[in-house]
Amino acid sequence: MSFRKHLHPRRSAAVALATAGVAGSLIGGLALAGSADAAPPVHHPDGYVTVDSCTTVSGKINYTPGLRKTLARQTTGVLTGTTSGCSDIFTGAMAGTGSVSAVLSGRASLAAEKFTGTFTINWPGGHLNPSNGTLNVQPIGSRQYRVNGTVTSGADTGSVLSFGYLTTSQKGSGRKGHPVVWQQYVNTSPLALSRNIG
Q1: Is cis: bond before 190, omega within 30 of 0?
Q2: Rounded Cα–Cα distance for residues 161 and 137 (Å)
Q3: How far apart are CA 132 and CA 112, in angstroms?
Q4: How many angstroms separate the Cα of 124 from the Cα of each of 65, 84, 86, 94, 175?
Q5: Domain containing 104 — which CATH number?
Q6: Rounded to 5°, angle at Cα 100 from 75 and 143
Q7: In terms of DSSP bridges, do strands 73-88 and 131-141 run parallel, antiparallel, or are they unpaired?
Q8: pLDDT in single tens digits along all 198 residues of the chain
């Protein structure tokens, strides 16, 4: 199913304008290439457009059983958070705050928190229907993680989810008898839903 069929007509118009901009850049690049005999061909990667995003995300992740320092074991995590600074490609800023939640599972330790799971984004003020989907969490540095996923139902179905976060505090040391039962986090990159219009 095409991207346009998932969008309100006005949102389709906004995406059409973005697509036209990409096409215009391609045509301009080809024209310049033709004006110089030695100019190499211009290659453009597929173009992703952010359709909805939130600049700020913060919250908490609860773990059962708690995380050990290096001992990986099957763990369930429940991520909750509050979002703000949200905006839409067509209507602009969304007033107020929203929420994000996810149920995570995987073999994990403090040294290697790797999870897969499902998520729900509730947009501020009911501006859009909730966005639901699947995700995975990968460590990318000390206490830093990357979240990638796909929206499978609700607003922006078919879009790609991305954001990064940093854990800032925790309960427990990770030692035997004192596992980490929760962590608080803040985002390091915006929560974004994007579509490839290439």
Answers
A1: no
A2: 11
A3: 26
A4: 32, 8, 7, 6, 39
A5: 2.40.350
A6: 50
A7: unpaired
A8: 444 344 544 454 444 444 444 334 333 333 333 434 444 444 335 688 999 999 999 999 999 999 999 999 999 999 999 999 999 998 999 999 999 999 999 999 998 889 999 999 999 988 799 999 999 999 998 899 999 999 999 999 999 999 999 999 999 999 999 999 999 999 999 999 999 886
DSSP the chain: --GGGGS-HHHHHHHHHHHHHHHHHHHHHHHHHHHSTTPPPP--PPPEEEEEEEEEEEEEEEEEEEEPSS--EEEEEEEEEEEEEEEETTTEE--S-EEEEEEEEEEEBTTB--EEEEEEEE-GGG-S--EEEEEEEEEEETTEEEEEEEEEEETTTTPEEEEEEEEEEEES-SBTTB-EEEEEEEEEEEEEEEEE--
Determine, yes or no, domain membership for 113.
Answer: yes
Residue 66 domain flag:
yes
Dump pLDDT digits (tens) for 46-101: 688 999 999 999 999 999 999 999 999 999 999 999 999 999 998 999 999 999 99
* Residue span of the structural domain in which 73 resides: 49-196
In a domain, 33, yes or no: no
Q: State the pTM of this model.
A: 0.77
Token readout for 10 is 């006005």
